[in-house]
UniProtKB/TrEMBL annotation:
CDD domains from the UniProt entry: cupin_CV2614-like (cd02236)
Protein name per its UniProtKB record: Cupin type-2 domain-containing protein
Keyword Signal: yes
Lineage: Bacteria, Pseudomonadati, Pseudomonadota, Alphaproteobacteria, Acetobacterales
Keyword annotations of the record: Signal
Source species of the chain: Gluconobacter roseus NBRC 3990
InterPro entries in alphabetical order: Cupin_2 (IPR013096), RmlC-like_jellyroll (IPR014710), RmlC_Cupin_sf (IPR011051)
Length: 157
C-alpha cells in the first residue's frame, strides 16, 4: 500500500469517494468464479465411417490421441491413403469431398460439419473453389502413423 502512504489527503479522499479503492471490488477480485456447466454442441457420434463401414475396434496398444489442423489448397486432391485408426474431422473452412476408391462413393462436407473418417478403406479428399481447413482428431498409438499413403503416392501431410 505504498500508494496510500504517498497520496495526499485530497487524492485519497477522491479515490475513496470515486469508488476506485473500495473494499468490495478488492474482495470480488479474489473470490472464486461461480460454478456453471458449459454448453455442448455434439458434432459427431458414430460407430461407422462416412461411407457406412463399421469400426471394428481400437488398437490394443497404449492409446495416443492427436489433433491436426490441415490446410489443403483449392482445386486439389489429397493422395490416396488409408487410416489404420478411427478418426474424425471437422471442416473449419471451405468444403471437402471424400472419395472412396473401391466403391466410388463420394460425400461432400461443408464448413461447420463433422465427419467420421474411414479405417483401412482407400480414400482421398478433394477441395472446391477455395482452400479447405480441417481439424482432424486421431485415436492412434505412439510411434505409428495416422495416415498411410498407397505405394507410389506422396504423404497426405
Amino acid at each position: 500500500m505504498r500508494f496510500l502512504a504517498l497520496a495526499t489527503p485530497v487524492l485519497l479522499a477522491g479515490a475513496i469517494l470515486g469508488g476506485t479503492l473500495s473494499a468490495p471490488s478488492a474482495i470480488a477480485q479474489t473470490s472464486s468464479p461461480a460454478t456453471a456447466s458449459g454448453h455442448a454442441d455434439h458434432l459427431l457420434a458414430d460407430d461407422h465411417s462416412w461411407n457406412g463401414t463399421p469400426y471394428a475396434h481400437y488398437p490394443t496398444t497404449r492409446p495416443m490421441l492427436s489433433m491436426i489442423r490441415l490446410t489443403i489448397p483449392a482445386h486439389s486432391a489429397l493422395p490416396w491413403h488409408v487410416h489404420p485408426y478411427p478418426n474424425a474431422g471437422y471442416v473449419l473452412e471451405g468444403t471437402l469431398t471424400i472419395e472412396d476408391r473401391e466403391s466410388g462413393k463420394k460425400r461432400t462436407f461443408h464448413q461447420g460439419e463433422a465427419f467420421a473418417e474411414s479405417v483401412n478403406d482407400v480414400h482421398r479428399g478433394v477441395t472446391g473453389d477455395s482452400q479447405t481447413v480441417l481439424l482432424l482428431t486421431y485415436a492412434g498409438s505412439p510411434g505409428k502413423p495416422t495416415s498411410i499413403p498407397l505405394p507410389g503416392q506422396q504423404k497426405e501431410y
